[in-house]
């Protein structure tokens, strides 16, 4: 008798629990549809069709006004495409409340990681006899460093393809000489021992763009903020941080500058017409009204922003669209090739593009990098208020004003002095040898006061440890090569265009044997610190080129090369390097094949 009674009690408890669960998950009539998970899109015809036209208007105001002409109905009408954020919060709180007398077991749902990074392979070793020339476009982006920092602070190693070593190195400023005479660039080279490979040397190439003594001398700016207010941006590290970042930039504007604001979600709309920079209260009020909700039609927003920028075009000034987004374009023009073609057409109007990335979970790094490169622009990732200040206040001139466009570097190595070489980073900026003299080939743009650094790993002739063995049956072409400049290791060429020019100019510099430094501790702080950052990046990319894979030695090298470190960025890097050392020494890292 006891066993049947136990079955009856058990069935009763199961039925009671099911009823409680149904009651908790039930949405009362008239409260609208259940909130969609962040980043998802309502695919109903009403959501994807006629309601898209109201998205940008909803984004301009934190409150929705009920029309006095609306007929009263037992159910309140709401847009199927977006749910009021306060209603969303109410449902979230309701779903988390257990029924009286029963405590639900926790069932945490891990966030879906939809971050997207373009794949690329590391540069390989090149023998000078067969391939003496290296050509690449300069890269001034810094997005990869801030994004890697964000992931390390979460206690996780970044995906390999998230690590672009040149962006890690170029995140930091270096004390390079100012340009001579009327040249837009100063060029610096230094050669010393590699810290991660015996019998290898590093060629450090530093380029310093002209800086302004006073930011007030910057040309008048015509800026269009293109702001993603789709549902995927609805979080404090996205729309919340974005607002604070844009307000920092507004604080730097002058009366001669103009700002317009365009938003896009399911559709695109103008929030603020071109407004003088002196009207900071009006501009900041427009920014504060931004609210996220809806799907993401980035293509429509890009078209409208460029159109508005052309209307206020300043012939002798700065004309730039500043796109702030997580890159999660999911309606309208979503094909990467189509977006590239659109941005390429728009850049011909003389309006440049800056891309500011925000958030995590669905961050589309691949898309944002590509459109920034094609749009004659730059890309940064904003993971904190401090990073916003760095990009939009401390380095405002470098972010907004171009001093040279289509900047290319070509280095020819002397086969009598250099056995082989390897360019560290710049894989996505590779150019063919013939592209260097072709002014129709697009390349990198450099902003006011930018410093750009490139590192080559070299195996010098006679080092005793060649990277590539000589051919058994081939001819040693080096012996047959007539060297015209035996005192040179390499010859550096830099080609660039003035911001409004169509024809390029050339700067050249020889790299001489006598400049080689024998001891690593005799090199400059900049040399050693940049080497430490490159070492850091190669560890994160699991590079097979490292003979010494010692994160602790990397930490020590970086710590001793911090120099003046005015803003503390190098000290912060040392902390990140210690984090990497801890993570890679974890047994789980080795078990995962790290």
Could you characterize what this model shows?
- With 594 residues, the chain is an alpha+beta fold.
- Helices cover 31% and strands 20% of the residues.
- The chain contains 18 helices and 16 strands.
- It has helices spanning 2-25, 45-48, 55-59, 85-95, 143-153, 165-169, 236-250, 280-288, 298-311, 336-347, 365-374, 385-394, 396-400, 477-480, 525-540, 551-560, 569-584, 587-591, and strands spanning 126-127, 133-137, 185-193, 201-209, 221-228, 258-264, 268-276, 318-325, 352-357, 378-381, 402-413, 418-424, 444-447, 451-460, 488-497, 505-512.
- The strands form three sheets. The chain has a six-stranded mixed beta sheet with strand order 7-6-5-8-9-10, sandwiched between helices. It has a five-stranded antiparallel beta sheet with strand order 1-12-14-4-3.
- Helix 7 packs antiparallel against helix 8 (280-288), helix 15 (525-540) packs antiparallel against helix 16 and helix 16 packs antiparallel against helix 17 (569-584).
- It is globular.
- The chain starts with a helix and ends with a helix.
- The relative contact order is 0.15.
Q: Outline the low-pLDDT stretches.
A: 23-110
Structural class: alpha+beta
Identify the overall geometry.
globular
**Termini Cα gap:** 61 Å
The level of helicity is 25-40%
Mean pLDDT level: 80
β-sheet strand percentage: 15-25%
What is the number of strand segments?
Answer: 16
Rg, nearest Å: 28 Å
Query: Total number of helical segments?
Result: 18
Spatial order of the strands forming the largest sheet: 7-6-5-8-9-10
Biggest sheet statistics: 6 strands, mixed
């Amino acid at each position: 008798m006891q066993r049947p009674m136990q079955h009856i009690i058990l069935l009763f408890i199961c039925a009671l629990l099911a009823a409680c669960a149904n009651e908790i998950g039930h949405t009362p009539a008239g409260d609208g549809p259940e909130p969609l998970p962040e980043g998802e899109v309502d695919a109903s015809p009403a959501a994807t069709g006629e309601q898209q036209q109201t998205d940008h208007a909803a984004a301009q105001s934190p409150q929705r006004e009920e029309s006095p002409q609306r007929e009263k109905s037992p159910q309140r009408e709401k847009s199927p495409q977006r749910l009021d954020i306060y209603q969303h919060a109410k449902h979230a709180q309701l779903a988390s409340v257990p029924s009286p007398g029963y405590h639900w077991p926790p069932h945490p749902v891990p966030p879906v990681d939809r971050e997207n990074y373009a794949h690329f392979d590391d540069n390989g070793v090149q023998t000078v006899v067969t391939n003496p020339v290296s050509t690449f476009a300069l890269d001034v982006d810094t997005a990869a460093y801030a994004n890697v920092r964000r992931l390390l602070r979460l206690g996780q190693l970044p995906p390999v393809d998230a690590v672009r070593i040149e962006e890690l190195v170029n995140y930091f400023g270096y004390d390079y000489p100012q340009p001579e005479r009327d040249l837009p660039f100063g060029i610096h080279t230094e050669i010393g021992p590699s810290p991660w490979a015996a019998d290898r040397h590093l060629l450090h190439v530093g380029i310093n763009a002209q800086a302004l003594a006073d930011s007030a001398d910057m040309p008048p700016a015509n800026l269009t903020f293109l702001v993603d207010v789709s549902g995927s941006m609805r979080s404090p590290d996205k729309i919340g941080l974005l607002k604070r970042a844009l307000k920092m930039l507004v604080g730097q504007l002058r009366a001669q500058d103009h700002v317009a604001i365009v938003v896009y979600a399911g559709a695109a709309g103008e929030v603020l017409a071109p407004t003088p920079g002196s009207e900071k209260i009006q501009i900041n009020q427009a920014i504060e009204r931004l609210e996220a909700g809806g799907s993401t039609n980035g293509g429509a927003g890009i078209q409208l922003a460029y159109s508005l920028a052309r209307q206020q075009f300043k012939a002798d000034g700065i004309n730039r669209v500043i796109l702030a987004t997580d890159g999660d374009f999911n309606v309208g023009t979503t094909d990467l090739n189509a977006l590239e073609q659109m941005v390429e057409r728009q850049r011909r109007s003389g309006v440049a593009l800056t891309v500011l990335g925000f958030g995590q979970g669905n961050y589309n790094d691949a898309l944002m990098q590509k459109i920034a490169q094609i749009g004659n622009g730059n890309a940064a990732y904003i993971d904190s208020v401090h990073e916003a200040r760095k990009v939009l206040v401390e380095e405002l001139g470098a972010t907004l004003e171009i001093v040279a466009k289509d900047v290319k570097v070509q280095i020819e190595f002397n086969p009598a002095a250099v056995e082989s070489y390897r360019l560290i980073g710049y894989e996505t900026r590779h150019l063919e040898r013939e592209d260097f003299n072709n002014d129709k080939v697009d390349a990198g743009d450099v902003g006011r006061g930018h410093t750009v650094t490139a590192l080559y790993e070299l195996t010098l002739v006679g080092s005793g440890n060649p990277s590539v063995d000589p051919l058994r049956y081939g001819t040693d072409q080096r012996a047959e090569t007539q060297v015209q400049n035996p005192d040179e290791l390499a010859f550096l060429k830099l080609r660039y265009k003035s911001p409004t020019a169509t024809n390029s100019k050339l700067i050249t510099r020889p790299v001489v044997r006598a400049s080689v430094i024998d001891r690593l501790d005799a090199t400059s702080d900049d040399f050693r610190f940049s080497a430490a950052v490159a070492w850091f990046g190669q560890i994160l990319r699991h590079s097979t080129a490292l003979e010494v894979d010692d994160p602790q030695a990397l930490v020590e090298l970086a710590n001793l090369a911090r120099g003046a470190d005015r803003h503390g960025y190098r000290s912060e890097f040392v902390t990140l390097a210690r984090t990497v050392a801890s993570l890679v020494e974890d047994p789980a890292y080795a078990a995962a094949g790290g």
